[in-house]
Hints:
By secondary structure, this protein is an alpha/beta fold. The chain has one domain (about 10-210): Rossmann fold (3-Layer(aba) Sandwich). A hairpin with a 4-residue loop joins β8 and β9. A seven-stranded mixed sheet has the order 5-4-3-6-7-9-8, sandwiched between helices. A two-stranded antiparallel sheet has the order 1-2. It contains seven helices and nine strands. The termini are far apart. The longest helix is centred in the middle third of the chain and has 14 residues, at about 85-95.
Amino acid sequence: MILGSGGPSSIRQNGVVEEKAMVSGHDWVGNLGPALDPERVLQEIGLKPGQTMLDVGCGEGRFSVIAAAIVGAEGKVLAFDISEERIEALRRTIEEQSLDQIEAFVADVTETIPVPEGTVDVCFVANVLHELVEDGTARGGLSEVRRVMRPDGILAILEFKKDVDRPPGPPLSVRLSPEDLEGLLSQHGLDLVSTTGVGSYHYLSLFAPREAEG
């Protein structure tokens, strides 16, 4: 699976490879309506004017558009998704609203993100990390995210609460707890800064690069 794709994923049943439609993280967000406020999430992250934010698996840009207003004309929002259809939808929004600070492009976080090393202030990953963990591709994806972060950058992970046994969201068996995230991110040199509930179904965990010892 590829992060935030919403596209097909191959599965094998009775020896036959079939295609299964995957739900992207931003599809989950879009289905929540007022239950999750993107502006509140970005405020909790501490996104500031002039910063560069990477929106991983951006979908049609629900967070990217609001982030653009926060970072302003001097900032930048790098928004990517594996789905060409979603990126085209975001590009139409960019044109209609003259959001020149958003750069939208097709990419796969488990491969290589076309972003220079150490240039991103905030890396934002919404409702998709559990998919990478489930498919065994989290190591490559997180390594690539870690590569583009500034030494003083923040990785913001938005995930569904594991103790809320109700829709919307993925099955409880694949959800990640804050403790799961902390253990996983520690392996990539990232330490927990804070965890905050952001709505009935979600929590937000912020991580910062670990300072080099010695």
